[in-house]
Structure formats: structure tokens, C-alpha cells
Predict the structure.
Amino acid sequence: MFISFEGIDGSGKTTQIQLLKDYFVSTGLEVITLREPGGTIFSEKIRELLLSKDFVLNSFTELMLFEAARSYLTENIIKPALESNKVVLCDRFFDSTTAYQGYGRGMDKKFLTLCNQMAVSSVYPNITFYLNVQTEISRKRSEKKVADRIESAGDDFFSKVQNGFDELSKMFPERIKNIDANLSIEQVFNQIKIIIENNN
Ligand code: Z5A
């Protein structure tokens, strides 16, 4: 099973991925956790370039780097893991491209869909948990973190991205589960657990 987690920065993805991993492991399943961009030495190098404040990237350069990192990760890690029946939990996947590069940066969404399809070559998440959090709450949670290049974009950018995730969850309600992520860690995880248990 392939599960991705989406949402704005500080929505609690890393926290919930760890809880879901522990849950699956306790039931005897083999689980791998990954993040995007990243998850392999090659893709982590691309991540450094993408998040560094040393470079000014235009939207196209940024997009190509995200897709290159995703293509490599999918081919070399996600596909083989799914073929050997492991559960794959991924912090972000192609919905982030639609939300950040499409809704946030204003790139053409049809073009992005095509790029996403080419990068993942038919490997799609079975479930996507969209951790839907108010921007003020996520900002408070991320207060201590030093902002990277993308996190340094203004509030206007993040409200467009948030709107993008909202729209996506309405367009694909079967796959994308809209989770109220303003609640406590335990309450958020309960919503996820109920969906996983009903899915079995
Ligand atoms: N990006 C893109 O533009 N296009 C793409 O295609 C892709 C990505 C794939 C990667 O960022 C950046 O790349 C990201 C989108 C862009 N940029 N932004 N903005 P990243 O991987 O470095 O970081 P992130 O994914 O944005 O977020 P994060 O810092 O990893 O946050 P998180 O994983 O969602 O949250 P967390 O670490 O679990 O929680 C943050 C804090 O809140 C922590 O102290 C927790 O203990 C606390 N927390 C978590 N949940 C709760 C609840 N429920 N209550 C209270 N406190 C909580």
C-alpha cells in the first residue's frame, strides 16, 4: 500500500507518519518512510539545491528539479518496495507540485499533470491524507524552524497553496482524505486510524 501525506509546512505530516508507521509495524507489516523531495542520496542532493537560499530559481527550473527527484525516488525505491508488499509512507508526493507550483506559483495545471504522470509512471498513492491546518496554527508550530527558500515565500503564496490542497481534496475525494489537523496529535491520528481500519 502506498500512502502519501500532504499539507502546508508544519501541518504535522512528519509526526503523523511516525505514528502510522508504528501502528502498521505493530500489526506485523513492513514499512518504509520517505520524504519528497528526497528519500535517496540522489534526490536528497536535489532537495539541497531546491531549498537552498543561495540560488534564485525560476518556476520551470524548480519544477524540473522536483520532478527529477520524484522520478528517481519512484523508480528506485517506491516501485520495488510496493512490489515486495511493503507499506510506503511518503511525506509529500505529486499533489504538492499541483498545490505549490500550480496554485502557488501559477504554472499551467495541465502541464503539471503531464509532468507528474511522467515522473511517477503509473505509481499512484492508494490514499493521500491531506492534513488541513489553519495557516496561523501551522506558523506557530514551525516558529522555531529556520525558513528555507520555499518557506520564505509570503502569506499570499501559502494561502494559494492551501486553497490548492482544498480544491484537490474536493476533486479526488476517493483518494484524498481531508483531515482536520488543527486538533491534538492524538485526535489527528484517530481520524487517520479510522480511515485505515475502514479501508482494510
Ligand atoms: N514542495 C514543492 O513546492 N513542490 C513539490 O512538488 C514538493 C515539495 C514535493 C519541502 O519542505 C518543501 O518543498 C515544502 C513544499 C515544497 N515547502 N514548504 N513550505 P520540507 O519537507 O522541509 O517541510 P514541510 O514538508 O513543508 O514541513 P515540515 O517542517 O516537515 O512539517 P510537518 O512534517 O508537516 O510537521 P511536523 O514536523 O510533524 O510538525 C511540526 C511541529 O508541530 C513539531 O514541533 C510537532 O511536534 C508539532 N505538531 C505536529 N502536530 C501537532 C498537533 N496536532 N498539535 C500540536 N503540535 C503539533
Remarks:
- Residues 2-198 form a domain with the Rossmann fold fold (CATH 3.40.50.300).
